[in-house]
Amino acid sequence: MAVPTDVLSAPVEESPAKPRRRRSSFLRNGKAVSGLVIIGFLLVLAVIGPWIAPYDPGQRGDDLLVGPNAAHWFGTTHLGQDVFSQILDGTRSVMLVGLVAGLVATVLAIVFGVTSGYFGGTGGETLSAVSNVFLVIPALPLILIITLSLPETNDLTIALVIGLTSWAWGARVLRAQTLSLRRRDYVEAARATGESTWRIIGFEILPNLTAVIAASFVSTVIFAVLSEITLAFIGVPGVSEWNWGAILFWAQSQQALAQGAWWWFVPTGLAIALLGTGLALLNFGIDEYVNPRLRGGPQQVRGVKMRVGFTPVLPAAKESR
Amino acid sequence: MTASAKPTAPGATDVVLEAVGLTKHFPVRPRPRDLLSRRRRAVRAVDDVGLVLRRGQVTAMVGESGSGKSTVARLLAQLVRQTAGEIRLHGTEVRAGGGRSFRAYCRRVQMVFQDPFASLNPVHTVRYHLTRALRIHHRDRDVTEALRELLTRVQLTPPDQFLAKYPHELSGGQRQRVAIARALAAGPEALLADEPVSMLDVSIRLGVLNLLRDLRDRLDLAILYITHDIASARYFADDVLVMYAGQVVEGGDGEAVTQRAAHPYTRLLVASAPDPDRIAGGTTEDSGEAGGEPPSLIDPPSGCRFHPRCPHAMARCRAEAPPRLSVDGNGSGHWAACWLYDATTVAEAST
Amino acid sequence: MTYVLRRVGFYLFTAWAAITINFFLPRAIPGDPVQSLISRARGQLDAEAVQSLYILFGLDTDQGILSQYWDYWGQLLRGDLGLSFTFFPTPVIDVIADSLPWTLALVGITTVISFLLGTGLGVLAGWWRGSWVDIVMPVTTFLSSIPYFWLGLIAITLLADQGGPFPSSGGFDPGVVPSWDLDFIGSAIYHSLLPAITILVTSMSGWVLSMRNMMLTVAAEDYITVAHAKGLSERRVMVSYAARNALLPNVSSFALALGLIVGGTLLVEIVFSYPGVGFQLFAAVGAKDYPLIQGIFLVITLSVLVANLVADLVYLLLDPRTRKEG
To answer: Which residues of A touch C256 (CB under 8 A)?
Structure first.
């Protein structure tokens, strides 16, 4: 399959400065790889979904509200529309909004977090206070009132609104990391070598933040996807017609529940869960890569019993090696 | 020692870097009651330090942890701005702000950091570290040739084998050599070495020290060698300065300071250094008597900062800070900031 | 004490920021939809109500922005958030006052329970790693990546509809009159069970995951090894040494997670037609009832700020270091 190889090469290009040895250990991580495979699969669907959909998602048919069968894998809606086609068609909107919002938020998080961490002082404190404000204000209602105030909304504007309001968490994490990197000797040494400030931030500090940035990007994408689906589910206008949230909106408003039409919302929800799980797995992979203590796997040490001729090794001590 | 091979009476033109009255106070976050009293508290990390680095000479600065010696190095490298005092490069005062003037300054004064495990960026290769230093300061040089030359100079041979390596693939001694090569890439006149061997295994320390000595002789570098190990200063330095609680308390010819230590603190340092010549457990004059810990640098003791620990403390020591007083009285340049060498004290002692 | 004052200062600043955002949003965007709402309701609105909406949404363009801002604050402090169009002509503040207690009770109780349960599970999952407890991981990963409302839909299908044991909508039985008697309270608790379980299940997984990670990090510390070496019982090391130290970061992230949980809860209310703020918000979005949406945003933000302050105080009790820390 061409999909996974495509996807696997992505993080390699992302951090060309990383030593080869560490790079491959990230790809040996089962969680990270399964996450990448899932996301790669969904990305491919996002591109080709509308073409391979068996029906036009809006096209009404004669089979009203029928369960899954050979003609309609995921059943039909109250208007006889094919749910499977709707989900395929909606993938693009979901992925697009998630990625754009994640990108915008990550760029903002880097700008706010790294500059406030590196420069410190009153300016840094102010930036940090601003990000804390955004962190505390409940995001969903904020996104909602901004989106509703906009005269015109579409997938892109919604992605921008989500991106512009959800960078604070990443900025906070990056700021903390930058604060600790700023006083490292190699940063001082680069300064003593005569490197310019921007060069230091861009080439000495940022490469060391790659994992943190990646993790915050993935978390933001999770958040953006869920927010966007939620907006569509509430019925905010402007979201793509067959966004997964919109499918659920119709299911809810047409009383799919009361009519027992489980196929209308179960596959859609599972698609959301698949995407969310893929992203979460990727994030765990990054976490374990950064902090090897988190690595799971079979571990017999817990149950070590004292035996004669066998020095008991305490689990914690052994792990830390 | 090799010091004798060098001209011992250098002219004023040989002074590369000079610090006069160098002072650094780090502000402390004010406590609520300080806000009322309007008193600004500060850590007096470095107070009124003067030193001279001469071409082709190693000046050692000895002191225990927290005595402010690393801060002196960072001040001289202009990584930290001094609170007061002057730094002079070839007699002209340095006002290295940012950008161009700072680059011009650091082309001539370079620094080697204490921890070679921390001073090289883990994401960059040896080639990157050295190339950047070359690119910044000597744009027109042929990089490939210069890289080879640098690595050969710090005895990392064959050079090509090391260029593509990441810091984690090198041993501590190799890393420190890379760090030294990076400093040399700028083509400096003065090298500030902040405890360059303290993080290395004892077995490879000598190699790095010999490398520094070799650089001093071949490149005529002025080296500031900062250390807490008075034995290595004795091995390696032409001049020795002793720092205590942010101040220089004794200075002079390396041989004189280490062999005939004058200040009670220096004697304490010498006595605490393991010395195979001295029989274990044998007591010298002052050793062991002066216990205690370095004082708080926020509220340093009045008068001489060493007086709470000093076995010879007099009433005068508590009241007045001693000036630099000549030890031998023969103009050798060996001095100590201690009232024991004041003319009146010496006169009293001899009667 | 300084710590508490600084936190209070920060929350006041945030409240100010939220209110100011609320002030500027409708003014920054051309073609105001509220104008059309007002003209549609013309004749039914008295002059005072129209004036209040003009102040809230900046329709009175003759006035300078500063004096508009001044009037806006004056009106907020009087508790006048305009009239709701969905529940015309009830003032927004009354609509919110009716629905807020439902939400507060639902979110408050479930959040505390989910934090306690999730943290406890996380402690076990982190400590007994490598055993069957590891099954918690994939389950919680899955649960944390689905939207709250979808789980609500599933819960209704399985447990409420077609003769399931739980009611599928509403906050109490239609026949019961809201009052402080046993009938009503019992009915309210009965109706809140399913939404509460839904929120519990989804929000808990986040705590499990973060607590597990903290436990794994802490378990490798030297003081844990020492505690083992001293021969302390496994249980004691786990609870008094590992969990105690792992708990603090989890408590401090409690405040930050609150905003997300509240967002999720609003949606669960929609699914269950629970008479809380979220359900009102849903109705308001459908009817483009801007005064109600903005009012709800303000009230939710302020409630979250208060909850954050409470979480900070708890943290202060748990960790004496905070008193000195900047």
So the answer is: 135-136, 169
Give the pair of three-digit tokens for residue C180.
Answer: 């402080």
- CA of C230: which chain A residue's CA is closest? A314
Token pair in block for residue A208: 């060391």
| Cα–Cα distances in angstroms (integers) from residue B224 to residues B54, B62, B213, C172, in the given order | 9, 11, 11, 81
Contacts of residues B315-319 at CB distance under 8 Å and 24 or more positions apart, as own/partner, are none
Question: Cα-flanking dihedrals φ and ψ of residue B157, to 5°?
Answer: -125, 150
CA distances from C62 to C49, C58, C65, C79, C199 (A): 19, 10, 9, 24, 48
Sign of the torsion formed by the C-alpha atoms of C170, C175, C177 and C183? negative
Examine the pLDDT at A164 and tell me if it is beyond 70.
yes
Decide if B124 and A19 are in contact by the 8 Å CB cutoff: no
Distance between B107 CA and the closest CA of chain A, angstroms? 8
pLDDT(C170) > 80: no
Q: Which ipTM did the prediction report?
A: 0.80
Q: What is the pTM (predicted TM-score) of this model?
A: 0.78
> Chain C residues with CB inside 8 Å of A136's CB?
11, 14, 255-256, 259, 304-305, 308
Cα B313 from Cα A130, distance rounded (Å): 55
Give the position of tokens 């007096």: B44
HSE of C237, CA atoms in CB hemisphere, 13 A: 23
pLDDT value for B182: 92
> What is the distance between the alpha carbons of residues B2 and C226, in angstroms, rounded to a whole number?
51
The pairing of beta strand B58-62 with beta strand B222-227: parallel
Give the confidence band of A286 by pLDDT, cuts at 50, 70, 90. Answer: confident
In chain C, where do the E strands start and end? Answer: none
How far off is chain C from A251, nearest CA to CA, in Å? 10
Q: Which amino acid is at B97?
A: G
**Cross-strand bridge partners of residue B61:** B226, B241
Q: Say if the Cβ atoms of C153 and A265 lie within 8 Å.
A: yes
pLDDT band at A301 (very low <50, low <70, confident <90, very high): very low
Distance, in Å, from the CA atom of B18 to the CA atom of B30, rounded to the nearest integer, reads 34
pLDDT at A8 over 70: no
Share of chain B above pLDDT 70, in %: 85
Best mutation site among B70, B102, B121 for testing chain A: the one with the most A CBs within 10 Å?
B121
Residues of chain A with Cβ-Cβ distance to C21 below 8 Å are: 142
Contacts of C147 in chain A (CB under 8 A): 226, 229-230, 233, 269, 272
Dmax (CA) of chain B: 70
Q: Tell me which amino acid residue C219 is.
A: A
Instruction: State pLDDT tens for residues B170-211.
Output: 888 899 999 999 999 988 999 999 988 888 888 888 889 999
Residue with tokens 């490197």: A195
Q: Kindly report the number of other CB atoms within 10 A of residue B264's CB atom.
A: 27
Asked if A296 is an interface residue toward chain C (Cβ–Cβ < 8 A), one would say: yes
Residues in chain B with CB shorter than 8 Å from the CB of A194 are: 102-103, 106-107, 133, 136-137, 186
Distance from CA of A131 to the nearest CA of B (A): 23
Q: A68 vs B29, which has greater pLDDT?
A: A68
pLDDT above 90 for A50? no
Judged by CB atoms closer than 8 Å, whether chains meet at C259 and A280 is answered as no
Chain C residues closer than 8 Å to A319 by CB:
219-220
| Cα C174 from Cα A163, distance rounded (Å) | 42
Cα-based angle B1, B7, B13 (whole degrees, multiple of 5): 135
Q: Which residue has the higher pLDDT, C325 or A91?
A: A91
CA separation for the pair C280, A173 (Å, rounded) = 35
State the amino acid at position B151 in one-letter form.
L
Q: Which residues pair with B251 in a beta bridge?
A: B241, B335
CA C56 to chain centre: 25
